[in-house]
Write a structure and sequence with these properties.
The chain has about 200 residues and is mostly helical. It has 10 helices and no strands.
Length: about 200
């Protein structure tokens, strides 16, 4: 479903699925409950998506397409420092999670997609997009003396992404009661202090 152009009705279904996951959890997302939310027959819904997994795939694909657009805008800022680029990327991601916490429920529901290759590959591709962008920023930072070269590019990216993932998971497990933006900022700032080269 990569690069898929969604119809208005498919977007409506994706948004309704997002709302149901937000309010009732991903386990309560079924064709039956979703068709009821939309006042559609199950047969009508099946004309747009063949299964629950295809709806989840659509939700993920729709999110990834929007994520790529957001990141392109941030990464086009050629005069922004590597540290600020990382801050802007994660602030954008975390703000999106706060606005649509259901996407976190889908991403972290390994039990749902671990046996579905297409869902698993879609989540993996999303992680890889982020990994590539972060590694490129780190390379730029190491090249211009902003970041230390003592830690490898891939390792640094993994530390950053791992730290943010744990922060998002803690936020999810507390029922979104913590301040994700504030906590994420603290984690990233702490990592930046470790990798930034102190200017003499």
């Amino acid at each position: 479903m990569e690069n898929k152009k969604f119809t208005e009705r498919q977007i409506e279904i994706i948004e309704a699925a997002t709302k149901r996951i937000d309010e009732h959890g991903i386990q309560d997302l079924t064709i039956k409950t979703l068709s009821s939310d939309l006042n559609l027959s199950e047969a009508a819904l099946y004309r747009h998506f063949k299964s629950k997994n295809e709806i989840l795939l659509g939700l993920l694909t729709y999110f990834i397409e929007n994520m790529k657009k957001r990141l392109e805008v941030i990464l086009s800022k050629t005069n922004t420092s590597p540290s600020e680029l990382l801050k802007e990327i994660f602030e954008s991601q975390l703000n999106t999670f706060v606005k649509k916490p259901s996407i976190v429920s889908v991403i972290f529901s390994e039990s749902i997609f671990q046996f579905n290759k297409e869902l698993s590959n879609t989540v993996s591709s999303m992680i890889q997009v982020n990994q590539n962008h972060i590694e490129n920023i780190i390379k730029k930072g190491q090249a211009n003396g902003t970041f230390t070269k003592a830690i490898g590019v891939s390792t640094t990216a993994t530390i950053i992404m791992g730290g943010m993932r744990i922060t998002v998971l803690k936020w999810k497990l507390t029922g979104h009661k913590s301040d994700l933006i504030k906590d994420g900022s603290k984690v990233l700032n702490g990592i930046l202090k470790l990798i930034e080269v102190k200017q003499k």
